[in-house]
Automatic annotation (TrEMBL):
<dbReference type="InterPro" id="IPR037401">
    <property type="entry name" value="SnoaL-like"/>
</dbReference>
<protein>
    <recommendedName>
        <fullName>SnoaL-like domain-containing protein</fullName>
    </recommendedName>
</protein>
<dbReference type="Pfam" id="PF13577">
    <property type="entry name" value="SnoaL_4"/>
</dbReference>
<dbReference type="InterPro" id="IPR032710">
    <property type="entry name" value="NTF2-like_dom_sf"/>
</dbReference>
<feature type="domain" description="SnoaL-like">
    <location>
        <begin position="6"/>
        <end position="132"/>
    </location>
</feature>
Length: 145
């Protein structure tokens, strides 16, 4: 049976969009659920292993107060290993600032190369076994990651 690579690409793109929508619109309250139980989330500052560590990262960020963030996804590329394993490589452009909108428009605070190792669980859902962001360009303001 042939692997439907286009379908897998679409499913992973939808997963990525849903993840960043949760982070940008709901403080990442469900971000940990997008990862496997032992998933590793490496941001520009550190690696967090396991759902509880990832949940804690976003919970701590929310506790610091108002922030506006938008993670833009570019150049989404998927390499399918088999029907349950794939790698997504893409570019993230992050605009973020503490405060409430509207905020002054500035250049992005981070442009990074992101690599996602994705696995499909027995429930049929794709999750991140790992997500690694490597900064390519940094703005003058720090990221919260």
């Amino acid at each position: 049976m042939a692997i439907d690579e286009l379908r897998i690409r679409q499913e992973l793109e939808m997963l990525n969009i849903a993840f960043w929508r949760d982070v940008d619109s709901d403080w990442g309250r469900n971000a940990h659920e997008f990862f496997t139980e032992d998933g590793v989330y490496t941001t520009s500052h550190k690696a967090r292993k396991g759902r509880e560590a990832i949940r804690g990262f976003y919970s701590e960020r929310e506790s610091r107060g108002d922030r506006v963030a938008r993670h833009l996804i570019h150049n989404f590329h998927v390499i399918v290993q088999d029907e349950n394993h794939a790698t997504a490589e893409w570019t993230m452009c992050l605009y973020a600032e503490d405060g409430t909108p509207p905020l002054m428009s500035e250049p992005p605070i981070l442009i990074g190369a992101v690599t996602d190792e994705c696995v499909r669980g027995i429930d049929g859902k794709w999750r991140y076994a790992s997500r690694t962001t490597k900064p390519l360009f940094k703005g003058s303001r720090p990221t919260s990651g």
